[in-house]
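As promised in the previous annual report, we have extended the structural survey to additional targets. Below is the entry for 2-methylcitrate dehydratase.
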Amino acid sequence: MKTHKLRTYRSDENLERKDQLAWAIAEVAVDDVEVADDVTEMVINRVIDNAAVAAASVTRAPVAAARAQALTHPVSVNGDGATVFGREQTRRVSPEWATWANGVAVRELDYHDTFLSAEYSHPGDNIPAMVAVGQHVGSTGRDVVRGIATGYEVQIDLVKAISLHKHKIDHVAHLGPSIAAGLGTMLHLDPEVIFHAIGQALHTTTATRQSRKGQISTWKAHAPAFAGKMAVEAVDRAMRGQTSPEPIWEGEDGVIAWLLDGPEGRYEVPLPEKGEAKRAILDSYTKEHSAEYQAQAWIDLARRLHNEHPELLEPGAIRNVVLHTSHHTHYVIGSGANDPQKYDPAASRETLDHSIPYIFTVALQDGEWHHGHSYAPERAGRPDTVELWKRVTTEEDPAWTRRYHSLDPQEKAFGGRVEITLADGSTITDEIAVADAHPLGARPFARANYIEKFRTLAEPVVASDEIERFLDVAQRLPELEPHELAGLTFTVDPGVLASVPTTKGLF
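The corresponding structure token record, generated without further manual editing, is:
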């Protein structure tokens, strides 16, 4: 890897384009290095993973609204259009709207892959745009794989180097540029076109983190889909010769100077050398449970305690619970956020999946975690749950914060240590570093797990022959011809979508 040194430049310093981060990323995108076999296998896994969580969310209100919007925007004239999760393959929409609808479906349940470092990310959010645009223009499966590999590489490299949340900027500000770069790879665009698409995508996708604070709304699922839609539109404009603000990161009035660390800010962004394979997808990890990634290991620990310590389940057995964990976990999904909504039984699902006190309580009591039942209003409002929930707090532990930020995959961790004080004053302590499904966990996810996740989540709404058809197409992704790419979707059983209340808007 090479290091791109990033800072603000005064206008009179006249930073040359070749020295700008957007150009360095464009050069990564145009580097025609082969995708390694293990990276290709993981791309396939994540395509299956995305479809799994989209199937589970296909009837949820935000997904239905986004799908309804997309279906009012028919195929544009310069391509074949793109498919929408749930609908038949022959029903096509304009690719930016397919990116929108499918992106919301993928993100709604907070149930797909993640990478955490200086910033947070869900790099699987790159995939809907690559597939939608690929279907529209007639890309091969190989080119889609290459585009996805670039999208993951760029987003993860940015996430390793640049913290957005520290300045209350939403993490999708790294996603717009990564999708623009990935589309540049997939479409074999010139570096100058990609450069301008990256700049426009970044410029239009910076927003505050209020979408993930307090009473979290349905916009949380829409935010990455919006970034994807903006990136697709940015690529379209750049292909037509339209230029972007520059230097977008480094400019005197640019992103660093006014949204991030200011004129004195310094960053070191790792990027692949020319000819170096794009392998960052292998640094990311998916979710076994539908919850914020920093809750994954805690769910597994709570399940273990449920089985090993049945005395904890007795009424009134627990005086209090303290989760000693990283700075991010404490301040984002823990009691350190100082959000009363994280202890509110009437809070939205989006809020509850960002409340580690709630998640740990329910997983401890139930010995399991379910993407639907565990968030049901009647489950959140159960009196014994509410009583214990309010006794669960978090505290930052510098050791776990250090491990959270470690770049050594053998040391990097997202868990912590739990201390449970019982009513008689005795304590039970335990700890966990990574989730069971993590590559270094007790049961690392492999292809069979991704397939099982898709089958489990799709079975309630998708016929068995359609499930197997999708799995066959997805696993042949690198060999797909352009006409086969439309099969990279699923159609739900008749009547499933008809049962969803119809929404009406402007379109």
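The chain has three domains: 2-283, 293-432, 448-499. The beta strands are 2-7, 115-116, 120-121, 266-271, 318-325, 392-396, 416-422, 427-432. These points will be discussed at the next consortium meeting with the crystallography subgroup.
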